[in-house]
């Protein structure tokens, strides 16, 4: 039976489209004086591994792919609400970090960290600090989706929830005698008091308001435990207005999407401490990008460390490692043990998803002997 003309025309158009891409790429490379990458296909044995490696290289260097990909990403984002592997799109344009959502909702895969490993590492760290006369306070920061599940799934219960791994971690901490700050509880109370967002719509991190809620909870806990006394340092406060795209927008790597999305307006408060003769701090803060935002990023001196310093009226020392609060910050501390001199408290802050996804897991890191 003869194939109908429309089907033959469609097949021919498809083959022409597919065949023109490598031909166009080869012509562009020759025009630039380069050897056509297509030649590499005939230089290695046609094994599955070699073919896949060639496919990845060709895809990465393809001029056609680079030209078309941003527009396809934009179409997926605006028409299908699809944001790729790193982000999920919720109602009202809220974005969420996809690995963080998976860490809360899916069973751990082989090789992922868990609450037991985190508690064991924390207990070992506490004991090493205690030998130096230093206390440890743990501050697990809730994922954005833990605080605003209804912004991701409209049928989810409003008011936030605590993931199973986090509940397990907090229970094991109590059993091990580890002191923690329950920011889930603090954020639920803050949501009940006012409607000001605690997290940024386009970002995985907290708003300045959410950060201040965390600062208040931590400061109150430190003072109520009697581990530190409020100091007498003074600060100048300056309000700063910023327009910024969040990290989840940047993760899309789509200039088209970024150009169409309006930046978020964020109002932060800088705290500038007046010079003092004695800058020694009794508190060292360890953490990740939740410490970096507003502090090392724009506008600077407006993040968690500066605001906690203002609440306690004392200078604070810090070690910040993006994504590395589970192990990497302690490894850096082990390389810089002089930072523990004169300390009374180490405050260890890490985001909830790191219970499973922390870089380098939850290793026990020995501190150098004094």
What would your notes on this structure say?
The chain contains 16 helices and 9 strands. With 370 residues, it is of the alpha/beta class. It has one domain (95-357). It has a 5-stranded parallel β-sheet, sandwiched between helices. Strands 1-2 form a two-stranded antiparallel ribbon. Helix 9 (183-193) crosses helix 10.
Give Rg in angstroms: 26 Å
Strand order of the largest sheet: 4-3-9-7-8
Q: What oligomerization state is this entry in? A: single chain
Question: How many alpha or pi helices?
Answer: 16
What number of structural domains do the residues give? 1
Beta-strand level of the residues, as a percent range?
5-15%
What ranges have pLDDT less than 50 throughout 5 or more consecutive residues?
Answer: none
What are the secondary-structure elements, in order, as H or E?
A: HHHEEHHEHHHEHHEHHEEHHEHEH
Number of strands: 9
Intertermini distance: 88 Å
Question: Largest beta sheet, briefly?
Answer: 5 strands, parallel
Q: What structural category arises from helix and sheet content?
A: alpha/beta
Helix fraction by DSSP (H/I, runs of at least 4) = 40-55%
Q: Name the shape in a single word.
A: globular
What is the mean predicted local confidence, pLDDT? 85
Features:
globular; 9 strands; single chain; five-stranded parallel sheet; 370 residues; 14% strand; alpha/beta
Which SSEs are present, and which pair or pack?
Layout: H1 5-31, H2 48-61, H3 63-80, E1 87-89, E2 95-97, H4 98-105, H5 115-130, E3 135-141, H6 144-147, H7 149-152, H8 164-176, E4 179-180, H9 183-193, H10 208-225, E5 235-244, H11 247-251, H12 255-260, E6 264-273, E7 283-287, H13 289-292, H14 304-312, E8 317-320, H15 328-335, E9 345-351, H16 354-357
Parallel strand pairs: 3-4, 3-9, 7-8, 7-9
Antiparallel strand pairs: 1-2, 5-6
């Amino acid at each position: 039976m003869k194939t109908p003309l429309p089907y033959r025309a469609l097949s021919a158009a498809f083959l022409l489209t597919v065949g023109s891409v490598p031909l166009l790429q080869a012509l562009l490379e020759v025009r630039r004086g380069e050897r056509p990458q297509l030649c590499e296909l005939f230089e290695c044995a046609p094994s599955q591994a070699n073919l896949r490696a060639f496919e990845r290289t060709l895809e990465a260097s393809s001029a056609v792919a680079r030209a078309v990909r941003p527009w396809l990403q934009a179409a997926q984002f605006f028409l299908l609400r699809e944001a790729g592997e790193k982000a999920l799109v919720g109602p009202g344009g809220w974005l969420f970090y996809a690995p963080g959502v998976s860490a809360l909702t899916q069973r751990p895969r082989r090789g992922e960290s868990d609450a037991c490993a985190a508690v064991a590492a924390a207990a070992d760290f506490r004991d090493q600090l205690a030998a130096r006369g230093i206390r440890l306070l743990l501050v697990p920061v809730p994922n954005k989706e833990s605080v605003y599940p209804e912004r991701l799934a409209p049928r989810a219960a409003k008011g936030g929830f605590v993931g199973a791994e986090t509940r397990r971690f907090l229970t094991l901490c109590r059993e091990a005698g580890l002191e923690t700050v329950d920011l889930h509880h603090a954020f639920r109370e803050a949501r009940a008091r006012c409607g000001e967002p605690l997290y940024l719509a386009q970002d995985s991190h907290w708003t300045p308001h959410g950060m201040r809620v965390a600062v208040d909870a931590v400061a109150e806990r430190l003072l109520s435990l009697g581990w530190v006394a409020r100091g007498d340092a003074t600060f100048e406060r300056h309000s700063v207005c910023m327009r910024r795209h969040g990290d989840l927008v940047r993760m899309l790597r789509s200039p088209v999407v970024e150009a169409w999305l309006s930046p978020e307006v964020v109002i932060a408060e800088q705290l500038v401490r007046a010079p003092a003769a004695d800058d020694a701090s009794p508190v060292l803060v360890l953490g990740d990008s939740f410490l970096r935002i507003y502090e090392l990023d724009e506008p600077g001196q407006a993040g968690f460390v500066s605001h906690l310093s203002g609440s306690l009226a004392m200078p604070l020392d810090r070690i910040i490692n993006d994504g590395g609060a589970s192990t990497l910050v302690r490894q850096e501390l082990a390389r810089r043990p002089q930072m523990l001199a004169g300390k009374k408290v180490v405050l260890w802050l890490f985001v909830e998803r790191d219970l499973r996804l922390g870089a380098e897991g939850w290793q026990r890191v020995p501190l150098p002997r004094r």
